[in-house]
């Protein structure tokens, strides 16, 4: 079974995927974490020849989507928390708009999914990476609700950025992700649309569970 989920930042993709992955025994693949890792490499090692750098990275995905490391020039870097900063969030959409970078990552993502039961989420999973997925879902919520969710996460960690900055990052990233020439974020015609505004994580996971059960029964 292959489940593909796309949607904008803060729509609940990764949280819902973690619940569904453990409930249905699927491998969870967070493709946004891979683009974030590329932005981290650019920020840390420089943006010159980024494509060559990326083709020499080995991604190490562990703990069913909860941990990501890269092997670069013989050294392993655990990026799990390092890629979740406002700085990386503000840089990632520009590196994700580079066609050559997307090509490398899409090939890797398709190889992870080959012959496996996966739930994969991102921006182009239903349209480009897994166009033949058994189930395709487009998750969204209003920008304000998505920013509130992200803000709450920062508050729980302590030292949150300003709410307005979180909202602006989300609006700017939505804009870049939906308007880029290469594999923009859009709802695939055959994807099920779920607006999660006002719904809890558990309610959304239940809705997706119903869709999976129906598919399994047929
Ligand atoms: O967690 P959040 O929704 O904030 O973002 P993410 O899923 O970690 O993705 C970070 C960024 O990577 C997105 O804003 C996109 O620019 C890019 N991305 C992409 O272009 N294609 C994907 N399949 C996944 C992420
Ligand atoms: O992966 P994506 O950026 O789409 O969203 P996420 O990281 O899964 O969700 C962002 C935050 O919103 C998390 O802290 C979730 O617990 C929360 N959330 C929520 O409160 N209600 C939902 N229906 C979905 C997510």
Which terms summarize this structure?
218 residues; alpha/beta; Rossmann fold; 5-stranded parallel sheet; 3-stranded antiparallel sheet; 51% helix; 18% strand; globular; binds cytidine-5'-diphosphate
Bound molecules: cytidine-5'-diphosphate
The major sheet is characterized as: 5 strands, parallel
Q: Approximately how much beta-strand content do the residues carry?
A: 15-25%
What is the end-to-end distance? 12 Å
Poorly predicted parts:
none
Shape: globular
- Provide the number of structural domains: 1
Secondary-structure-based class equals alpha/beta
What do you see in this structure?
With 218 residues, the chain is α/β, with parallel strands linked by helices. It has a single domain, classed as Rossmann fold, CATH 3.40.50. It is 51% helix and 18% strand. The chain is built from 9 helices and 8 strands. Strand 4 and strand 5 form a beta hairpin. Helix 1 packs across helix 9, helix 2 crosses helix 4 and helix 7 packs across helix 8. The chain is globular. The two termini are 12 Å apart. The mean pLDDT is 96. The structure holds cytidine-5'-diphosphate (2 copies).
Strand and helix layout:
Blueprint: E1 2-6, H1 13-24, E2 27-30, H2 31-45, H3 50-55, E3 58-62, E4 67-72, E5 75-78, H4 86-95, H5 99-113, E6 118-122, H6 125-129, E7 135-140, H7 143-157, H8 163-179, E8 192-195, H9 201-217
Parallel strand pairs: 1-6, 1-7, 2-6, 7-8
Antiparallel strand pairs: 3-4, 4-5
The structure holds cytidine-5'-diphosphate (CDP) (2 copies).
One cytidine-5'-diphosphate (CDP) binds at residues 9-10, 31-33, 35-36, 92-93, 96, 122-125, 173, 177.
């Amino acid at each position: 079974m292959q489940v593909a989920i796309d949607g904008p930042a803060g729509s609940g993709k990764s949280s819902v995927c973690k619940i569904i992955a453990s409930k249905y025994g699927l491998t969870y693949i967070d493709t946004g974490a891979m683009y974030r890792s590329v932005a981290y490499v650019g920020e840390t090692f420089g943006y010159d020849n980024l494509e060559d750098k990326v083709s020499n990275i080995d991604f190490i995905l562990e703990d069913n989507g909860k941990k990501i490391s890269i092997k670069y020039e013989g050294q392993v870097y655990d990026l799990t928390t390092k890629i979740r900063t406002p700085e990386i969030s503000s840089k990632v959409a520009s590196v994700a708009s580079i066609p050559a970078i997307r090509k490398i990552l899409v090939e890797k993502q398709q190889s992870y999914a080959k012959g496996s039961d996966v739930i994969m989420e991102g921006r182009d999973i239903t349209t480009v990476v897994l166009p033949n997925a058994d189930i395709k879902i487009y998750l969204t919520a209003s920008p304000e609700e998505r920013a509130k969710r992200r803000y709450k996460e920062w508050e729980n960690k302590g030292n949150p950025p300003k709410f307005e900055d979180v909202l602006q990052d989300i609006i700017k990233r939505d804009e870049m992700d939906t308007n880029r020439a290469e594999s923009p974020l859009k709802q695939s015609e055959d994807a099920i649309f779920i607006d999660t505004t006002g719904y809890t994580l558990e309610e959304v996971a239940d809705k997706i569970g119903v869709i999976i059960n129906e598919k399994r029964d047929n």
